[in-house]
Structure formats: structure tokens, C-alpha cells
């Protein structure tokens, strides 16, 4: 099984994965359940299309039965990269698809000369351990205050 890089015309096929990711974040988020998505899916798709067209992002998918089972979006800058999204639909988790996508991302970062990679993970997401297996280490905790300030 391989990850396949997509072009901007295929970005719309990611909508189901984006929705599933929001639903998942709302279930596992320690403090911000109900916050996701932070913007409408349509806006996310437009941003993805522009980033792929401009060459600032690359997106790869893994497919099962002609449907997208997961995807990975990476952003590439001058020696810095960002693992922006890595999503595997729930029914395909623990089948190696996350590893396929992550291996694609790391290989692409290496080819592009990236020396530092950032990934943000919501508090409560067990994927933290997955990223640590690839050598990622905690750098910061970002704290949010979401109540009305009195």
C-alpha cells in the first residue's frame, strides 16, 4: 500500500475526512470538546486547494475501495516544515495507513531539505505517542481561555 500525492482538483475528496477529524477531536479533546471545526469545511477546502496550487503544501492520500481512507497534508518552508494534518478514518485505524502517510511525509520533508518539523496535537489525542515514535518531542503547551472574560 502506498500514499499517493494529489493535485488541487482532488482536494474536494477530502471533505469526509475533515468532518471525521472534527468529530474525533470533539470526542477526545480534554478541554475543548465542541470547538471543532474551527472554520467551515468549505473554507478549509479552498485553503487546501490554494496551498497545493501555490506549492506551499503537499497532500497525499491512502485509498481503500476507490475511497479516501486517510490523508496527510504537509507545509514546506525554508528548512522548516509543518505536519498540518494526518487523518485516518476510524474504520481503517491500526491497519498501518497512518504509518504509510507518516513515512510519505518524512520522506518528502527529507527530499525538500526540511530540518525542523512542527506538529500540533490536541490535548487528549492518543496520536501523541505515534508522533513520538518518529522522534517528535514536546516543545510547548499552548493554553486557551475560551470563557467570557469577567
Key descriptive features of the protein:
alpha+beta; Aminopeptidase; globular; 22% strand; 150 residues
List the helices and strands and how they pair.
Blueprint: E1 4-5, H1 15-28, H2 41-54, E2 57-64, E3 67-76, E4 80-88, H3 97-111, E5 116-119, H4 127-133
Parallel strand pairs: 4-5
Antiparallel strand pairs: 1-2, 2-3, 3-4
The CATH topology corresponds to Aminopeptidase
Radius of gyration: 15 Å
| The CATH superfamily title | Gcn5-related N-acetyltransferase (GNAT)
Query: How many individual domains?
Result: 1
**Count of helical stretches:** 4
- Provide the β-strand percentage band: 15-25%
Mean pLDDT: 89
**Biggest sheet details:** 5 strands, mixed
**N-to-C SSE string, H for helix and E for strand:** EHHEEEHEH
Count of DSSP E strands? 5
Amino acid at each position: 500500500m502506498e500514499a499517493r500525492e494529489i493535485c488541487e482538483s482532488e482536494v474536494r475528496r477530502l471533505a469526509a475526512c475533515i468532518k471525521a477529524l472534527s468529530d474525533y477531536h470533539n470526542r477526545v479533546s480534554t478541554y475543548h470538546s465542541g470547538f471543532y471545526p474551527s472554520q467551515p469545511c468549505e473554507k478549509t477546502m479552498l485553503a487546501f486547494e490554494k496551498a497545493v496550487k501555490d506549492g506551499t503544501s503537499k497532500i497525499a492520500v491512502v485509498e481503500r475501495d476507490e475511497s479516501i481512507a486517510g490523508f496527510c497534508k504537509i507545509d514546506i518552508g525554508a528548512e522548516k516544515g509543518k505536519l498540518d494534518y494526518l487523518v485516518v478514518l476510524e474504520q481503517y485505524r491500526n491497519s498501518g495507513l497512518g504509518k504509510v502517510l507518516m513515512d510519505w511525509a518524512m520522506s518528502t520533508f527529507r527530499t525538500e531539505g526540511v530540518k525542523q518539523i512542527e506538529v500540533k496535537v490536541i490535548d487528549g489525542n492518543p496520536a501523541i505517542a505515534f508522533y513520538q515514535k518518529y522522534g517528535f518531542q514536546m516543545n510547548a503547551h499552548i493554553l486557551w481561555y475560551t470563557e467570557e472574560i469577567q
